[in-house]
User: What shape does this take?
Amino acid sequence: MVLEHYDFVWRSLRRLGVSPPETDDATQQVFIVLSGKLPNVEAGKERSYIFGIVMRVAANVRRARANLREVPEEEAPQMQVVPPAAEARLDRADARAALDEILASMPDERRAVFVLSVLEEQSPAEVSATLQIPVSTVVSRLRRAREDFQAGINRLRARRKGV
Assistant: This one.
């Protein structure tokens, strides 16, 4: 199961707000929890069961991070000089940080639907099965999540223009 679902778990944790230094540990935690609950996993429903664990682990990691008094790396003053060859990597890092910021501003239930539908490219029926909610709820949450995402993009654009 680890080999089959590792990438999905890691990406999902990352998209649910777990930052890179914590992502590997959180991924391991998901599989530790899963190993203790293997008898409860129904055949064919492994992915939805795992995603439920992913959501709880991500919430725990975010909650633990909120209690820290450390300054996050992205808010720390930058003192290094970046060589021009690294500009492309910085652009990707900026885009990744912007996506993380927008996703972090969404409520958990909308973020989960957005991650599975848009980023993992699952159909509404697959998302419904994964989250064990009605398809109509998936569609409604996805619509609201897309509105949240567009509002986040608009906020970032306004911030960059100095508004």
